[in-house]
Amino acid sequence: MSERIVELSAADLAAKLASGEVSSVDAVTAHLEQIEATDGTPLDAQDRSRGTDGLNAFLHRNREEALDVARGVDEARAKGEQLPELAGVPVAVKDLIVTKGQPTTAASRMLEGWMSPYDGTVTRKLRAARMPILGKTNLDEFAMGSSTEHSAFGPTRNPWDLRKIPGGSGGGSAAAVSAFQAPLALGTDTGGSIRQPAAVTGTVGVKPTYGSVSRYGVIAMASSLDQVGPCSRTVLDAALLHEVVGGHDPADSTSLTDPVGSYARAAREGSAEGGLKGLRVGVVQQLSGEGFQAGVQQRFEESLELLRAAGAEIVDVQTPNFEYALGAYYLIMSSEVSSNLAKYDGVRFGLRVTPEGTPTIEKVMSASRAAGFGDEVKRRIILGTYALSAGYYDAYYGSAQQVRTLVQRDFAAAFEKADVLISPTAPTTAFDIGGVDESADPMQMYLNDIATIPTNLAGIPAISLPGGLAPEDGLPVGIQFMAPAREDARVYRAGAGLERLLTEQWGGPLWRERADVTATVRDFAATAAQGGK
Amino acid sequence: MSQDVLSFEEALERFDPVLGFEVHVELNTKTKMFDAAPNTFGDEPNTNVTPVSLGLPGVLPVVNGKAVESAIKLGLALNCSIAQKCHFARKNYFYPDTPKNFQTSQFDEPIAFDGHLDLELEDGTEFRVEIERAHMEEDAGKLTHMGGDAGRIQNAQYSLVDYNRAGVPLIEIVTKPIVGAGERAPELARAYVAAIREIVKNLGISDARMERGNVRCDANVSLMPKGATQFGTRSETKNVNSLRAVERTVRYEIQRHAAVLAAGVKVTQETRFWHEDTRSTTAGRPKSDADDYRYFPEPDLVPVVTTADWIEELRASLPEPPAERRKRLKADWGYTDEEFRDVVNAGVLDEIEQTIAAGASAAVARKWWMGEIARLAKQREVEIADLPVTPAHVVELNGLIDGGKINDKLAKKVLGFVVEGEGTPAEIVESRGLAVVSDDGALTAAVDDAMAQMPDVVEKIKGGKVQAVGALIGPVMKATRGQADAGRVRQIILGKLGVQG
């Protein structure tokens, strides 16, 4: 085969499906086979927490239903029915989004085996768009983490190097898209959980404007920060998926009433000849330089040069209050976490642990939560409970909200000078699985999100796209564009423009630089098997 | 050992009571406060639920606009200011009747604040209660403790939870401290809750049935030495669910606090529970102002925004306040204080107003509703309003009397049949043949019989004692089973004897 189905972009696959060159059943089958070939087998059949000897991007594979949907699409197309643009294009869904008929776990023992009786709004929209759902992807438990190591069902591995983390919390969706297991995936982004995994896996991820995509049916981590968004290998693909899942939802009070934007058109315009001419790009001085890996910085600066050469106007912007953003984020996020996760108590659903002796409801709740939650989740619940406590509220939650306002003002001032802002997405490339000792210093992990968190605090849209490989380790670097709230089209325009400049320079997509994933996984599994003996 | 309670009189000689009330009103909206589950009472447990009411992973709340409207109406009826913009907050605590383990409630930004309510007391005076706030929140589910003592949690083997009530819209009305009630404190407590119940019923925003928990009162009581201004430590008696219990609770707590203070002991700040069987309260859990619910603004909801136009539109739609309506009706009807109070206590204001509107005089309306109809209700042990007698029936009945078709005695019989569901008064008179007998032939025969049996009476009448005619009318009425027209019988007798009436 000259061009494998799984390597096609969603847009190209959709075109081949429309022309009849490829069937949806073929497409779904090819992706299921790729998952089979790369996701690995459990390292310990008794203990799911150890994960697999492969990528371990999927927690649940939805084989039969995906094929059923694909067959339905193929039959409808054969009858000449009008179908949505992405009908028949398979998609993976982060296991934080509820799906009727498939388990939803949030990668927590707390929800192991729980089946949602209802679909989330974005799930409903995927079904209405007739996109086969391949399965549910791995994440840090309840989306808390930057490495997917905090999954109760073992870490996801980075397709570029299986010893490395795929970022987090949406490491499963990013790895799946990166490794051709799916052309598209949904993620959620509270502090960078779509963009940082995109950066370290060489893929595209978008955090839309807060309220642009419904959160109904998305297991809440931090309600005022969470946002659903697309993961893909091209900017155009992300735009297409955003158009499918976006739009007002009366079931989400924080959902914007704006109509869905023309994101795909913006991406196409941005990648057209001269698409970046006159675009004012603000370089956020606080989000590069010190603390950023040399190779990341180098690729970032090369991107700035390309943009300048393409006619963009590069300006410096200052955002002095970003210094406090990480601290404010951890207070607001953990406060909301402590309340949002209170419902997991073993009473109505999920794990219930009944202790020995006379079990009072308090003891059952306590034992269930002790057994069901992992360390990072507990750490944040404790932090948030403390921050909201009487006598501390003003000093912690109250001042964090004030910082949030200051960060919003910094952005507003910056957008006076620039149409979009730019920064590296993450300070480093992917680090080793197990390489950060969080029990000693959780801050080290939290610093991964230094460049992504301000946008969540401000509710504005941002994209991460591949910016090349860092010379020192050969691992992907991510470039981030940010735009004012409701101007999501701008990040697609700028992102697609830079994507074109970079791929022209590379002579093709970045993933062509990578060794064949299937072979890498095979070798890794063999090594693991030997190591195990 | 000190005694448990002082006499009410002694308590008031030594202390001034300070009251405070938190009344929860369950709204009668079609759906719950934050989701589309039906808000109905008495259905099978856990059937009126959605993923939102159960707090399943991923769900989000949406504010019920109708409930906000109800809250504004109530705020206006309580003479409150209405917030232009207000937030919901989360009150965090673990309890299995609360699906999310937090209650979505208003905290520092109530929708209505700074109002007042003027109460009418039995001695005819008015007492103003200042309203601190009225805020929106959601109800919890209902726990039923099994295997323990009388449904109590103590010694229960297990508990059942019904989430039908979880998320039902509530408005909590909080008073400012009420001072100066003195010995009228128990009466005032009752009058306050009764007034709230009446207002929400009149606004149509709640079914207002206390026995179903539609209106629930938490009563705060504290005492301070006579003449003092510094409030004492309060107790909060939860969920007092009848007017009589509210009155008794306040009375009991005043007596109990007085005994504690008289013994030189400090009152414990705590929640208490009222027991109808022992007519006393017992301690619940200690409560302090430092209870930490970790309130913070509900991030899943946007603020509720009210516009001046909306508020004025709602204000214009408010029905006449019950107290003002009573003043107006009393003046219109010309009843004495006592008559009017009896009418109010019997709960037949609406019935009498409608009866008058349909053409009867105020006196006639009162005569029937407070007379025979009230007697029938009492006999059947139901509320007057629950009888199938309508104002139209009363007007029709009165028309039959005025037209000479029936007399009062027959009319009472007819009402009995109306209550039995036999139809309207006219239909019953027709079907049962109850009209008065004015057929001279039938009456003359009965008169002749009576005169033959009582020659002495006949002689008296002939001798000029015309009032003795009554003695003859009695047997005639009996012979015609009460259907004789008494006036006509009298005429016939006097005619026969040639005596001028």
From TrEMBL, chain A:
Designated name of the protein: Glutamyl-tRNA(Gln) amidotransferase subunit A
Protein role: Allows the formation of correctly charged Gln-tRNA(Gln) through the transamidation of misacylated Glu-tRNA(Gln) in organisms which lack glutaminyl-tRNA synthetase. The reaction takes place in the presence of glutamine and ATP through an activated gamma-phospho-Glu-tRNA(Gln).
Record's subunit section: Heterotrimer of A, B and C subunits.
GO biological process: one example: translation
Top-level taxon of the source organism: Bacteria
Annotated Amidase domain residues: 53-491
SUPFAM superfamilies noted in UniProt: Amidase signature (AS) enzymes
Catalytic activity line of the entry: L-glutamyl-tRNA(Gln) + L-glutamine + ATP + H2O = L-glutaminyl-tRNA(Gln) + L-glutamate + ADP + phosphate + H(+)
Organism: Kocuria marina
Active site: 94, 169, 193
UniProt key word Zinc: no
Entry EC no(s): 6.3.5.7
Keyword terms, alphabetized: ATP-binding, Ligase, Nucleotide-binding, Protein biosynthesis, Transferase
GO cellular component terms, A-Z: glutamyl-tRNA(Gln) amidotransferase complex
Pfam families linked: Amidase
One Gene Ontology molecular-function label: ATP binding
EC supergroup of this enzyme: ligase
Family, similarity comment: Belongs to the amidase family. GatA subfamily.
UniProtKB/TrEMBL annotation, chain B:
PROSITE patterns, per database record: GATB (PS01234)
Superkingdom: Bacteria
Domain Asn/Gln amidotransferase intervals: 350-497
Subunit structure: Heterotrimer of A, B and C subunits.
Family: Belongs to the GatB/GatE family. GatB subfamily.
NCBIfam families named among the record's database cross-references: gatB (TIGR00133), PRK05477.1-2 (NF004012), PRK05477.1-3 (NF004013), PRK05477.1-4 (NF004014)
Listed name of the protein: Aspartyl/glutamyl-tRNA(Asn/Gln) amidotransferase subunit B
